Amino acid sequence: MTAPKGRRTRPTGAKVREAVFGVLADRVQGARVLDLFAGSGALGFEAVSRGAASVVFVDNDAAAAMTIRRNAVALIEDTERWRILPMHALRALRMLRGKFDVVLVDPPYKRGAEEELAVLMQRGLLAPDGVVVVEHRSSAPVSLPVSMQVVKRTKYGDTCVTYARTRGRGTLASRRPRTPR
């Protein structure tokens, strides 16, 4: 897998990626995944490699979108399992339909994703038992909409990963069995 050249994209490190998917465990199996601020697509591709049914990659950087496309063609045989939206995350969130079981959010550290998380929840794009995973700088906690609650937070040096669900939906361990789609 390749990453876009330059400093605009900060791929999630292998240690953090492995830890995230260790926490998500079997939630990824058969899941619809949304990868916002996808960069190289590393998180979305990891989800597919662990059995996700499909992934939608969103990144507004043209070089990142081209890199994701090349990686997807090389790594995912079934083209029905992936889609790339080369646009701003807010625009994508306003046009997407359906519900996502896992939403991966890895914005530039200086930017944050508060508005995107609010639109995600307002539009009802998170499945009832879905989980949102936000990677951010440890020194800058993520601000969640009131409709969400933090269920887990882990630190890896300067990187922090916050796991959140719809308020009142329980912990990461709380989950109804997935029904076939």
What's a quick, concise take on this entry?
This protein is of the alpha/beta class.
Description:
By secondary structure, the chain is α/β, with parallel strands linked by helices. The protein has a single domain (14-166), classed as Vaccinia Virus protein VP39 (Rossmann fold, 3-Layer(aba) Sandwich), CATH 3.40.50.150. Helix content is 27%, strand content 27%. It has five helices and seven strands; from the N terminus they run αβαβαβαβαβββ. Helix 5 links the parallel strand 4 (100-105) and strand 5. The chain starts with 13 loop residues before the first helix and ends in a 15-residue tail after the last strand.
CATH T-level fold name: Rossmann fold
Q: State the order of secondary-structure elements, H for helix, E for strand.
A: HEHEHEHEHEEE
The CATH homologous superfamily is termed Vaccinia Virus protein VP39
Radius of gyration: 15 Å
Largest sheet: 7 strands, mixed
**Name given to the CATH architecture:** 3-Layer(aba) Sandwich
Strands of the biggest beta sheet: in what spatial order? 3-2-1-4-5-7-6
- The low-confidence runs, each spanning 5 or more residues with pLDDT under 50, are none
Give me the oligomer status.
Answer: single chain
Q: Proportion of β residues?
A: 25-35%
What is the helical fraction, as a range of percent?
Answer: 25-40%
How many strands appear in the DSSP assignment? 7
Number of domains: 1
- Structural classification: alpha/beta
End-to-end distance: 30 Å
Assign an overall shape.
globular
Task: Round the mean pLDDT to the nearest integer and report it.
Answer: 88
Tell me, what is the CATH class?
Alpha Beta
Count of helical stretches: 5
